[in-house]
Amino acid sequence: MALLFIAKDPNTNGTQCPTAWVDDEAQEIVVQGWKAGEALLAKCRQSGPIPDSEAVVRLPIRMVPAIREACDVADRLGVR
């Protein structure tokens, strides 16, 4: 199956917006969000370094149902 679309941010125009997927082959929840600005990155780095292979993205709280659904779908698919 590979990448399973879950949902886009319901308060946007449906393009270029936060999105959630489940990748059952890679065993991952995949999210698209807004890039973190320098101020947020500085706050995040207080917890530790952010490797070049990782990114900090922001998601609106209204995406919580989509993230929960992605978690539920991953659980049903046996993604671990």
> What percent of residues adopt helix (DSSP H or I)?
25-40%
Low-confidence stretches: none
The span between the termini is: 15 Å
- The H/E string reads EEEEHEH
What is the overall shape? globular
Total count of helical runs of at least 4 residues: 2
**Residues in β-strands, percent:** 25-35%
Largest sheet: 3 strands, antiparallel
Assign the structural class, choosing from mainly alpha, mainly beta, alpha/beta, alpha+beta, or little secondary structure: alpha+beta
- Number of E-type strands: 5
What does this structure look like?
With 80 residues, this protein is an alpha+beta fold. It has one domain. Helices cover 28% and strands 25% of the residues. The protein contains two helices and five strands; from the N terminus they run ββββαβα. Strands 1-2-3 form a three-stranded antiparallel β-sheet, covered by helices on one side. A two-stranded antiparallel ribbon has the order 4-5. The longest helix has 14 residues, at 64-77. It is globular. The relative contact order is 0.25. The mean pLDDT is 91.
